[in-house]
Design a protein that fits this description.
With about 220 residues, this protein is an alpha/beta fold. It has one domain: Rossmann fold, CATH 3.40.50.150. The protein has seven helices and ten strands. The longest helix has 13 residues. The protein starts with a helix and ends in a 6-residue tail after the last strand. The structure holds S-adenosylmethionine.
Length: about 220
C-alpha cells in the first residue's frame, strides 16, 4: 500500500511538536530511568544514530563513541539536539531515513523509538540498510516501545498500516506509524532475515542488540 501520506504526516507531527517532545521524559519516571539502560549496551567506535530527535541519547552516545553521526529529518528537533550536544566529534545530518543511505560503515548503529515508526512492509529494506551500515564486527543497538505502551496510545484500529493518533497542545492531530513489536516475534523476524538478535523487555520497552548476516550469508 502507498504509505507516503502517512509518513509525511508522521514527519509533520515531529516538526510541529519539536518543542513538546521532551515533556514526557520529565513527567514519566520510567522514561527518566531509561537512559541508564545504555550503560550495559555495547556502544563503541564510530556510531550512527538514526532518528536522533531532540538528542536525548546523542550526548550519552558521544561519551562512549569515537564519533557520532546523528540523522533526523526534522530541522526543528535537530536544532534542539545540537544545543544539547556540544561535542566536536558529533555530526548532525538532516535526511529522510526512508531514502537516505549511509556513505560509510559504523561500529554501532543505534536507534531509539524509531523502529516502531517504520511501516511493517518497509522493515526488510530497513534492516538491509542497517546491515549495510554496519562495519565488520559491529552491531545494531535499539530501544523502543513494547506492547504495553499501546495502552497509553490512541491506537487507530482498522488502519491499513499500524498507526496511532498524536495530538499537540494546540489541538492539531496527526497520524503516526506505530508498531508495538513483541520481543520474541521481532527476534524471530530478524533471525529469518539472517540476523543474530538478543531482545529483552525492559519495563514497557524492549532493548535489542543484533549482529547482521555475514556478507554473502
Ligand atoms: C519518537 S522520535 C525518537 C527521537 C529520539 N531517537 C528519542 O529516542 O528521543 C522519532 C524521530 O523520528 C524522526 N523522523 C520521523 N520521520 C523521519 C524520517 N522519514 N526520516 C528521518 N527521521 C524521521 C522525527 O523527527 C523524530 O525525531
Amino acid at each position: 500500500m502507498d504509505d507516503h501520506a502517512l509518513l509525511a504526516e508522521q514527519m509533520a507531527y515531529y516538526r510541529a511538536g519539536a518543542a513538546e517532545y521532551d515533556r514526557p521524559y520529565a513527567e514519566r519516571e520510567d522514561l527518566r530511568a531509561l537512559p541508564a539502560t545504555l550503560d550495559d549496551l555495547p556502544i563503541a567506535g564510530d556510531v550512527l544514530e538514526l532518528a536522533c530527535g531532540t538528542g536525548r541519547w546523542t550526548p550519552l552516545l558521544a561519551a562512549r563513541a569515537r564519533s557520532v553521526t546523528a540523522v533526523d529529518a526534522a530541522p526543528e528537533v535537530l536544532s534542539l539536539a545540537r544545543a544539547r550536544t556540544p561535542h566536536t566529534h558529533v555530526q548532525f545530518v538532516q535526511a529522510d531515513l526512508f531514502t537516505w543511505r549511509p556513505s560509510r560503515r559504523y561500529d554501532t548503529v543505534f536507534f531509539a523509538f524509531w523502529l516502531s515508526h517504520v511501516p511493517p512492509a518497509r522493515l526488510p529494506d530497513f534492516w538491509q540498510t542497517v546491515a549495510g551500515a554496519i562495519a565488520p564486527g559491529g552491531r545494531a543497538v535499539f530501544i523502543d516501545d513494547g506492547p504495553a505502551e499501546a495502552a497509553v496510545e490512541e491506537v487507530l484500529t482498522d488502519h491499513p498500516v499500524p498507526a496511532a493518533m498524536r495530538r499537540l497542545d494546540d489541538g492539531r492531530q496527526y497520524r503516526v506509524v506505530k508498531v508495538f513489536h513483541v520481543p520474541h516475534t521481532l527476534t524471530a523476524d530478524l533471525t529469518a532475515l539472517g540476523w543474530s538478535a538478543r531482545i529483552r523487555a525492559v519495563a514497557s520497552t524492549y532493548v535489542g542488540v543484533a549482529e547482521p548476516p555475514a556478507p554473502g550469508g
